[in-house]
Amino acid sequence: MLGSLFSPDSVAVIGASRTPGKLGHAVLKNIVDCGFKGPVYPVNPAAREILGLRCYPDLDSIGERIDLAVIMIPAARVPEAVSDCARRGVKAVVVISAGFRETGHDGLVAEKEMARIASENNMALLGPNCLGLINTRTPLNASFAGAMPLKGNISLMSQSGALCTAILDMSFERKLGFSSFVSLGNKAQLNEVDFLDYWSNDPDTKVVLAYLEGISDGGKFMKAARTFTRKKPLIAIKAGVTNAGSKAVSSHTGSLAGSERAYEAAFKQAGVIRAESVADLFDMASSLVNQPLPGNDQIAVVTNAGGPGIMATDAIERAGLRLANLSQETMKRLAAELPGAASVINPVDVLGDALAERYRLALDALIDDRNVGAIIVILTPQIMTQVEETARVVASRSEKQAKTILACFMGKPHVEAGIRILNDNRVPNYAIPERAVISLKAMVCQKKRQERPKRRITRITIPRKPIKEVFDGARERGQLEIGETGAQKVLEACGIPTPASRLCRTPDEAVKFAEDIGYPVVLKIASPDILHKTDIGGVKTGVTGSQEVRDSFDLLVLRTLRYMPDVEIWGCLVQKQVEGGTETILGMNRDPQFGPLIMFGLGGIYVEALKDVAFRIAPLSRRDARQMIEEIRSSRLLYGVRGRPRSDIDALEDAILRISQLVTDFPEIVELDINRLVVFPEGQGVTGLDMRMVITGQ
Amino acid sequence: MLGSLFSPDSVAVIGASRTPGKLGHAVLKNIVDCGFKGPVYPVNPAAREILGLRCYPDLDSIGERIDLAVIMIPAARVPEAVSDCARRGVKAVVVISAGFRETGHDGLVAEKEMARIASENNMALLGPNCLGLINTRTPLNASFAGAMPLKGNISLMSQSGALCTAILDMSFERKLGFSSFVSLGNKAQLNEVDFLDYWSNDPDTKVVLAYLEGISDGGKFMKAARTFTRKKPLIAIKAGVTNAGSKAVSSHTGSLAGSERAYEAAFKQAGVIRAESVADLFDMASSLVNQPLPGNDQIAVVTNAGGPGIMATDAIERAGLRLANLSQETMKRLAAELPGAASVINPVDVLGDALAERYRLALDALIDDRNVGAIIVILTPQIMTQVEETARVVASRSEKQAKTILACFMGKPHVEAGIRILNDNRVPNYAIPERAVISLKAMVCQKKRQERPKRRITRITIPRKPIKEVFDGARERGQLEIGETGAQKVLEACGIPTPASRLCRTPDEAVKFAEDIGYPVVLKIASPDILHKTDIGGVKTGVTGSQEVRDSFDLLVLRTLRYMPDVEIWGCLVQKQVEGGTETILGMNRDPQFGPLIMFGLGGIYVEALKDVAFRIAPLSRRDARQMIEEIRSSRLLYGVRGRPRSDIDALEDAILRISQLVTDFPEIVELDINRLVVFPEGQGVTGLDMRMVITGQ
Asked: Which residues of A are less than 8 Å from B304 in CB distance?
């Protein structure tokens, strides 16, 4: 379907205009000027000829096959035009006209109607309310952009048309070439997923850049992005990160989740490289499209100036990359070949008076060193510096693409000629070392992404029946929040241990059970009407003898009746008191875009005050679960620190996977908090305490 | 002294050369070409005339007054030349020659010798091993830089000469003008402090940029920077942040401190704005030198494109600034004047088809709004966009300097003409909104810095005698680590409460004291030979009765003797057991550069696993102490969270100030840890437990 959009045999321009300055003129002119090779049919009932082309009053009068139609007429008439296209067998339409979803309800209805027509007729529809699209290979410029981009291997999609124009304008200075350029507009039909799928198999696209404000379908996006990033890098800006506007929620997980956390998790899981600005997009794209991926995350720096070398080192460490440890052999070789004052330890300082030859010696040695994954070549223009000569040396060393080489020729007038040579030879140049490092970071991420073994979702069988029963029982009582007794059953069904406990109707029953399981025990008032037991003093911990069990039983019942005389009281829940272990929190909140967002963190103060938690979107792989545990800042506490034993990480990982499975199997679970999930020392498992859940009404 | 360096009446060039390409030629040519108005005397025994100037065999033969001498002869002969200069009454010398400290011990000796000569003769000395210096007002270019910078109000000092050349080269593109340009070199005599002091009173310098790798004297730097930043912004890159290379230390504070933490604290306390890259330097300088400081931290955005508006919003929140809440009046005015589809809520979207007039309407409304502290004007080049016209509107609104206005015209060929107009009218333009926001952040910091009331060091009188006694006693025993008993005395002398405790020699004595102070108590083995009691099981906590006191006393003594039969045992320390409160850690480590670096954080896991601590350099003001408490991520725990009471913050602040005073009064304290300083609920004070200290031998 997208083939006809990017490489149509013929194009009709509905709303072509004779008046320069009008969109209908600009788009037609772009199509003609870009060198499109097929027939172009302007459609405008009021004109006979535009830009030397015969103009048609309507589609029907064209009488030839039409592959692509570009529509730029007033919004009210667009749906009819789309209908006409469908009837005439047009394969793809680009609706540039605005005035739809963005204007309110009527616009949204019209937009949906035209998407329906397109889909029913197997016709691709881009827009409405967009800038159009460009393909530099066809070539086709079906947009009102002010220029045609340079030819290259980057494809871009943007939800902001204006940003497209700005990026296009900036790309000339950076000498970045594009394969295709797509303004997504309102995404009535085609959206980011369709283009990712298409570019995944497009040999002309090596890197995709995206500017996204929202994603149409989180699940489909993750699937498409996963497949795509396994082959090629996808660099995305997700704008609107801070106006999370989280709704009022009752769970810890809910209050810490929110759309930004969900996007962050989704991008991480799908291997999408996140850019924070247009500068990031450009910087990362220039290296990814021009240089091979680094062999490892160890970076070597060669420089003719100490200062910028130190700055590169600082940036490398800040980015979480490593300054390469040069091999003994490399250092010996450098020491033999460079002057005595040079530094042969990374960063390699070839000294201020270095001519091109010294750069060559250093570069050759670093390229041969297997420890080195990538090289940054820094040059500052000093009096004797051979800028162009050095650029040629760097270019020649990059030619074999044996190792990632990025340049940082610092300056402007004095280094311009050198930068031109670098650009012409696919060596990206960065104004400052910090920007080269940002690009290397993206490359290393992509490398790791491509090497990551294919993810395997861990399937765990969870019995449906006992859980269904709990949910149905709660619904029958008109409750959508599942209380402790029910939650405990659910946890047990999931295979997550909970402390031995029993609902005891009398003090005698309570004493008997307590003696069976052993002291200390906890008593909790059991009533279908009370969810927050602690708030009314309905919990007694640390009960250590039979008389105390009796006293506590009576106290809890009496106290509850005093506050709430009319509640139904079942008795008391007697529970083995859990001692020792590390308290964690495990929860889920359903994100409107991406679905079940799982949260993990250490309990108590860590989640409340420090918000030290990790998020992932379910279903999870074992690797996802492990990463969540390792990602929190306080994870060291689980791995054993200063006398604390190492926790049972395997059991914790297993519990996370089981909750992932639970919320995947039961979409009716809206939110869930196990606060506290106690993790015992290695080999001793976990225990789930105080679980809360909210389910849907049906 | 620096007057003669920047604006000499005459200049001698020692080591002037006839050969183009040589330093001695380049520097002389720069002095001549820059238009220096006084006499220039090349010195070279082998030449008669260079560049049309009469050449002298030596200084003596010049026979005229020489203000400044620039020296570029081989290192071995430099000290003698400096001597000659001193003898001839030269007021300032710039030593460009390299081959000193950076080559090893002999070089360092020669360097110190020449600094001594200069200082004794009241002569200013810049370098050695530097690029030289430039002043655009004099004008004077006594450097081998490849060009003269544009004239302006920025002064720069850099410890990397090569970075100077790169910055200079880049500055042309950014149209940044300089007042002076100094390459610091090895800083044998003149260093960053001298230049800060000079520029503080230099009317031509409005902003100072610095690239520093190390600071010569931390205390002097802080003093100079404090004075300077109260008047003008100082933006500094501190390179080499990651190779902390912390030495082996035994205290918590020591292990978390390190030069990077000290620099961070020093910069914060002295109001220095930290830049992370040369790009930051440029971006921040362009706004600080051209625009007034913002009235507040509320930022308004006006844009013709939604996407970049959202990106600006994201950046504003990330930077800790605020998106301005426009007044009702402003919104009404915008609603009346802009088209219906425009957004009158910040970011103000004037829509893609906005002409210059719409920008004018929006800008005027925002300038009149008192809520707005600064404005970012974003423009993307769309077909109808009036780039130059809009630039002129922005320029005219900026002219009155009534409000901070930064521009972000995004693109290259299509916006270039507009950017030129902005530049010519002192409106800095940023390629992407994120960079404008970084600059605004720096401006807001500077504004706050200038408004900050003058800092007052809180002086607390601490009695010297009892503390001296403890130190002397320890030294007499040959111990430089002060044990618990001594530390408790020191704390008490400082006015920090410690739990009631007494050294008891017998079980009877211990029982008596325990009954006096009340249970529970802690018993600790007391021996001058044992510092780490816990390690040998020499502590018993939670002792609640007389028999238990007796048993514990015997147990501790017997256990100690079993492990260490030969130690001297004084008895047991009986101490009131502290219950409740929040555990914090307060410590000090002496930084080689900045002196006493005070650390504060929550105790236990927070400091060990999360490293959640704040640093400041003593002596502290009350504001410093308060900021340390507020700065840690876990500070919420002290201010009361989820049922926890608010801690006694005033008492904690007071304790921090007392420790600051202690380490200021006693420079012999090398490191100190109060781990744990227990903070009780409001009004109930603090208690210092488990203090350790290391002192110097004398």
From this structure: 162
Contact A642 B608 (CB under 8 A): yes
Rounded-to-integer distance, Cα A307 and Cα B163, Å:
6
Please, which pLDDT band fits residue A104 given cuts at 50, 70 and 90? confident
Q: What is the pLDDT of residue A174?
A: 86
Alpha helices in B433-483 (DSSP H): 433-451, 464-476
Here the tokens at position A42 are 């302007």
CA B454 to chain centre: 18
Identify whether the C-beta of residue B44 lies closer than 8 Å to the C-beta of residue B176: no
pLDDT in tens, A411-428: 999 999 999 999 999 999
In this structure, how many other beta carbons lie within 10 angstroms of the beta carbon of residue B456? Answer: 9
Residues 258-297 of B with CB under 8 A from A: 276-279
- pLDDT at B242 (0 to 100): 58
Q: Which amino acid is at B579?
A: E
Chain B touched by A647 (CB under 8 Å): no
A139 preceded by a cis bond (ω within 30 of 0): yes
By the 10 Å C-beta count (0-12 exposed, 13-18 middle, 19+ buried), A509 is classed as: middle
Interface of A with B in 410-429 (CB under 8 A): 410-415
What distance lies between CA B666 and its chain's CA centroid?
A: 25
User: Is the pLDDT assigned to residue B669 strictly greater than 90?
Assistant: yes
- B23 CB within 8 Å of a chain A CB: yes
Query: What ipTM, to 2 d.p.?
Result: 0.86
Q: Which of A242, A305, A352 comes nearest B314 by C-beta?
A: A242
User: Would you give the DSSP letter of residue B6?
Assistant: H
> How many residues does the structure list for chain A?
698
B214 touches chain A (CB under 8 A): no
Nearest CA-CA partner of A673 in A612, A603, A587, A591? A587
CB contact under 8 A, A26 and B383: yes
Q: For residue A423, what pLDDT is reported?
A: 93
pLDDT for residue B122 is more than 60: yes
Check CB contact under 8 Å for B412 and A170: yes
**Radius of gyration of chain A, Cα coordinates, nearest whole angstrom:** 32
Question: Facing residues of A49 across strands?
Answer: A54
Max distance between CA atoms of chain B, in angstroms, equals 103
Phi, psi (5° rounding) for residue A460? -125, 135
Q: Which domains does chain A show, CATH number per domain?
A: 1-151 (3.40.50.720), 191-290 (3.40.50.261), 292-451 (3.40.50.261), 500-577 (3.30.1490.20), 582-695 (3.30.470.20)
Q: What is the dihedral of CA A617, A623, A627, A630, to 10 degrees?
A: 150
Of chain A, the percentage scoring pLDDT greater than 70 comes to 96
C-beta separation of A635 from A629 below 8 A: yes
Higher-pLDDT residue of B377 and B560 is B377
What are the chain A neighbours of B143 within 8 Å (beta carbons)?
Answer: none
Q: What is the pLDDT of residues A124-163, one digit of tens each?
A: 999 999 999 999 999 999 999 888 999 999 999 999 988 9
| B392 has pLDDT over 90 | yes
Burial class (CB in 10 A: 0-12, 13-18, 19+), B534: exposed
How far the first Cα of chain B sits from its last, in Å, is 39
Residues in chain B: 698
CA distance A346 to A331: 9
Q: What is the spatial distance between Cα A575 and Cα A487, in angstroms, rounded to a whole number?
A: 14
In terms of Cα–Cα distance, which of B614, B407, B578, B379 is closest to B497? B578
Q: List the beta bridge partners of residue B482.
A: B693
Beta bridge partners of B287: none
Residue B319 in contact with residue B438, Cβ under 8 Å? yes
Nearest neighbour of B412 by CB, restricted to A173, A306, A384? A173
Cα B175 from Cα B651, distance rounded (Å): 53
